[in-house]
Amino acid sequence: MSEKRKVLLCLNHLGGREIDFVLKAFADNWIVPLGPDVKAFESELEHFIGGDRKAVALCSGTAAMHIALDCCGVGPDDEVMVPTFTFCASVNPVVYLGATPVFVDSEPSTWNMDPALLDTAIDARVRATGRMPKAIVAVDLYGMPASLDAIAAVAAKWEIPLIEDAAEAFGSSYNGRRCGSFGRFGVLSFNGNKMITTSGGGALMCADSEQAHRAMYLATQARQGYAYYQHDEIGYNYRLSNISAAIGRGQMLVAEEHIAHHRHVHALYRELLSDVAGLTLFDNPSPEYDSNFWLCNILLDDSVRVRGRERAYTAGIQGVIGGAAATTAETVSVHTDCEPSVDVEALRLCLADEGIESRPLWKPLHRQPVFAGAPAYISGVAEDLFRRGLCLPAGPWVSDDDVRFIVKLIADSIE
Ligand SMILES: Cc1ncc(COP(=O)(O)O)c(C=O)c1O
Fold first, then answer.
1. 138 lines ligand 1 (CB under 6 A)
2. CA angle (124 as vertex; 120, 130 as ends), nearest 5
3. Fold that domain 256-413 belongs to in CATH
4. Among 12-26, 309-323, 344-358, which stretch is predicted with the lowest mean pLDDT?
């Protein structure tokens, strides 16, 4: 009997050379942070991202965001402008620093922060608080570049530093410039489900050496220049280990291959889904935007009816089949007051029955109970996307045959 197909949303792939770098690091006894592979990995990242950015390799993308916000001087009682449509890691470090996130809705074309609404929201915050927000976080969600020129223009107008969260956009570009190279800081993630992985890690891409130096200092416990440990400030233990950097160096050898594969998978979905009525595949809105298509996402028209919709939301999630969410708290109800449509959930179940992992889009953060009460400037775009959207598998393990199988399953699931 043939084994049942199992396709995960986005699982990383080792190219084969990672082990050579790791063995060399072991042989040289470089298992601590700050070894030669960290330095080499940083210069490879600088070369890849371009724009004269200085890289600081860190233990996660979340840590990179934390350090970036700290370097922008964010502290208690400050406000930081953030998109509502993103993963919580873009925003949690704002709260770690005692500041308040101010949520801004998405534009329909890129699904990312709406630059015009950002401008309106900053104006409203300045009037409401009498103070300028301390930073702006723009996210390139699912690999799609945000409208970075327009957002940078708003940041320049108000003289607020911009941080680009390019955790999902390694290899994407905007107007020919690589994501992660915009603003004062760019955040990268090398988590296990990202375009390249160090098994867990991240990097902060800094506009100049001075910022990079400050970031490195904060990431290594903010130690002063004495033989003994002297501290004027609170720092963090956030540097990447040399072993993780060694894995990253191996991954850099296959980065372009991974990016090309994600784009190939997306192009195949585009071709095959064009025959399926009622679905829209998320795509580059115009030539300035060049997504890496980290995940491939579809939107269901409201007219679409999916088979088995009556079993949607009848049971909670019984564990996860992959991805980063290894542990979840027990749920008290199968419903929340903001959730994907019954047809999106029914489609997810139809795919899961056949071993295909799919996932709803990121839930807008202004609808997360943990952020209730935070100021939010909302047009309804993100909530509509969340209600109608589903992420489909896209990683290096997804074959052409898998894509054909998935598209046929989707077509057959629609009534
Ligand atoms: C948009 C976004 N920002 C930040 C992060 C945080 O990265 P990490 O998991 O490396 O902490 C992630 C991924 O996990 C992400 O998807």
1. no
2. 140
3. Aspartate Aminotransferase, domain 1 (3.90.1150)
4. 309-323
Task: Give 54-89 pLDDT, tens digit per residue.
Answer: 999 999 999 999 999 999 999 999 999 999 999 999
CA 413 – ligand 1 centroid, Å: 32
CA distance linking residue 168 with residue 146, whole number of Å: 12
Q: Can you give the pLDDT at residue 61?
A: 98
User: Cα separation of 312 and 400, whole Å?
Assistant: 29
Residues 6+ apart with CB under 8 A from 45: 55, 57, 188, 203, 205, 252
Q: Which helix (H) or strand (E) holds 151?
A: helix 148-158
Ligand 1 proximity of 87 Cβ (cutoff 6 Å)? yes
d(CA 111, CA 128) in angstroms, rounded, equals: 27
Please indicate, yes or no, whether the overall pTM of this predicted structure exceeds 0.85.
yes
Report the CATH number of the 18-254 domain.
3.40.640.10
Give the span between the Cα atoms of 386 and 312, in whole angstroms: 16
Q: What is the pLDDT of residues 196-229, one digit of tens each?
A: 999 999 999 999 999 999 999 999 999 999 999 9
Q: Is 365 a residue whose pLDDT tops 90?
A: yes
Boundaries of every domain in the chain: 18-254, 256-413
CA 260 to ligand 1 center in whole angstroms: 21
362 pocket-lining for ligand 1 (C-beta < 6 Å): no
The verdict on the CB of residue 90 being under 6 Å from ligand 1 is yes
Distance 30 CA to ligand 1 centre (A): 27
Token pair in block for residue 174: 């905007």
The response to whether residue 167 sits with its C-beta less than 6 Å from ligand 1 reads yes
Residues 386-415: tens digit of each pLDDT: 999 999 999 888 999 999 999 999 999 999
How far is 254 from 13, CA to CA, in rounded Å?
9
Q: Which residue has 């200092």 as its token pair?
A: 217
Q: Does residue 119 contact residue 157 with C-beta atoms inside 8 Å? A: yes
Mean pLDDT of the chain: 94
Q: Does residue 197's CB lie within 6 angstroms of at least one atom of ligand 1? A: no
* Ligand 1 atom 15: residue of nearest CA: 167
What is the CA(187)–ligand 1 centre distance, in A? 9
How far apart are the C-alpha atoms of 382 and 368, rounded to whole Å?
Answer: 13
What's the 295 CA to ligand 1 centre distance in angstroms? 14
